[in-house]
Amino acid sequence: MTDSPTPYALADEAAARLAELTGVARHDVALVLGSGWLPAAEALDPTGENTTEIDVTDLPGFAASAVVGHSGKVRSIRLPGEDGDRHLLAFLSRTHYYEGHGVAAVVHGVRTAAAAGCRAIVLTNGCGGLKETWTPGTPVLISDHINLTGRSPIVGAKFVDLTDLYSSRLRELCREVEPGLDEGVYVQFPGPHYETPAEVRMAGILGGHLVGMSTTLEAIAAREAGMEVLGISLVTNLAAGISDAPLDHAEVLEAGRAAATRMGDLLGRVVPRI
Fold first, then answer.
1. pLDDT at 94
2. 229 beta partners
3. Helices 7-22 and 108-115: crossing angle, nearest 10°?
4. Residue among 241, 263, 268 nearest 34 (CA)
5. In angstroms, rounded to a whole number, what is the distance separating the alpha carbons of residues 24 and 108?
6. Which pLDDT score is estimated for 42?
7. pLDDT value at residue 247
8. Is 75 exposed, middle or buried, given 0-12, 13-18 or 19+ CB atoms closer than 10 A?
9. pLDDT at 170
């Protein structure tokens, strides 16, 4: 009986298979698209001429997407730039912690991106906002996070510094492209249920401005792998207790579709400069 490969070895296998299927030996920047962000991928290459798309399940270690609004696809996109082309690796779905596959599965995409050569990663999500001025469709840069899952993707006595986890350089680059961007602290709850009003109040007391069910574990794994991290949340609804309106996943997706053009344009201008 052979031992199962380690999470890192499995990521190496996935990266090797990715190179075979896309014909791209090395990617530069990875992008993980969260709930509501899927249409933004179209704006990165509207004609599709520079895009190769594969099923995520064609790569070792990936499970099929279990969440509405996540396509289960991976795209290799060539982005022309003034100082040369960038090869973007876009995951159009992610594995969430609440799906029950374990933390290693949650961060497998991040580790695959690192093994594929990516030196930076853009993590996006749809989330609830604690500021009443953040109407649905508002993009917010993540400046820091609070991980309430009680878990870490790092195994063993590896002490990784998270002081500047969400790159101040990349946040400033985004503000050069779109000066009006706000920023805030993202709080990850385990899910899949939405937060109670009391939990949202707690998040605010702790210093949070955004609440959701993803991103923090991926960001930690990215830092462990040596990647520069940019986090962008799309506020799809006011968090529980901030508004009287009930929370609905369909609302999350609709808010994302409404903001797709703006998000695609933002990413299209920022990624080639990373």
1. 92
2. 121, 166
3. 60
4. 263
5. 19
6. 79
7. 59
8. buried
9. 96
Q: Which helix (H) or strand (E) holds 170?
A: helix 168-177
pLDDT digits (tens, 9 = 90+) for 66-121: 654 445 899 999 987 777 788 999 999 899 999 999 999 999 999 999 999 999 99
> Could you tell me the two tokens for 133?
């001025």
Strand, coil or helix: 10: helix
Could you tell me the end-to-end alpha-carbon distance of the chain, in angstroms, rounded to an integer? 45
Q: In this structure, what are the phi and psi dihedrals at residue 63, rounded to the nearest 5 degrees?
A: -100, 160
Specify the 3-state DSSP secondary structure of 219.
helix
- Specify whether the CB–CB gap between 210 and 168 falls below 8 A: no
Tokens of 214: 């993803």
Q: Is 195 a catalytic residue?
A: yes
Q: Which helix (H) or strand (E) holds 18?
A: helix 7-22
The pLDDT score that the predictor gives to residue 86 is: 87
Tokens representing residue 268 in the block:
């299209």
Cβ atoms of 40 and 18 closer than 8 Å:
no
What residue has token string 């602290």? 185
Nearest CA to 215 among 129, 124, 136? 124
Q: Up-side HSE of residue 162: CA atoms within 13 Å toward CB?
A: 17
pTM, two decimals, is: 0.91
Low-confidence ranges of the chain (pLDDT < 50): 1-2, 68-70
Give the ranges where 27-162 is alpha helix by DSSP (H): 40-44, 103-106, 108-115
Please tell me what DSSP assigns to residue 120.
E
Q: What is the spatial distance between Cα 33 and Cα 70, in angstroms, rounded to a whole number?
A: 8
Please report, for the chain, how many H helices and E strands are present, in that order.
9, 9
Amino acid at 102: G
Alpha-carbon span 171 to 40, nearest angstrom = 19
Catalytically annotated residue among 49, 99, 132, 195: 195
